[in-house]
Design a protein that fits this description.
Elements (H helix, E strand, L loop, with lengths): L8 H22 L5 H18 L5 H4 L5 H14 L31 H19 L4
Helix pairs in contact: 1-2, 1-5, 2-4
Length: 135
Amino acid sequence: MLGMKNYTQEYVDASRARIARQIAMFVSGVGLEANPEFEAAYFNNLLVVLDAHFVHRLRGVEKKDGNPLNEVRVICASLLENDELMGSDPAIQLTPEKSVLGLAEGDSIRLNREDFIRLASAFFEELEDKFVASE
């Protein structure tokens, strides 16, 4: 697939709904007081799923200014390639102070439900701003 410079609102809404269903299934399956190990594994993996919905987004449109799209990109690469320790991307200006989750290079990545919801909400907001054409 070629790089994507825009997505339809319909596709973004469908992706948001799929992610919301996964969060709801987690809560209905384990409740609000989940085992922290299971919760981290679940939401770390769900972040990779979220990123996969939009993995072909063009970096030129995404920018490299440390926005939530960048944060998800770096966290997912770290989950997959850096043993769940926060890494960095020299092309992206991501700082803990300006990021949603405040993770610094070397921090353990252990998302809980609240972390995931905050980051996913910021991700979708940024995605809609940059990749969905206003009609």
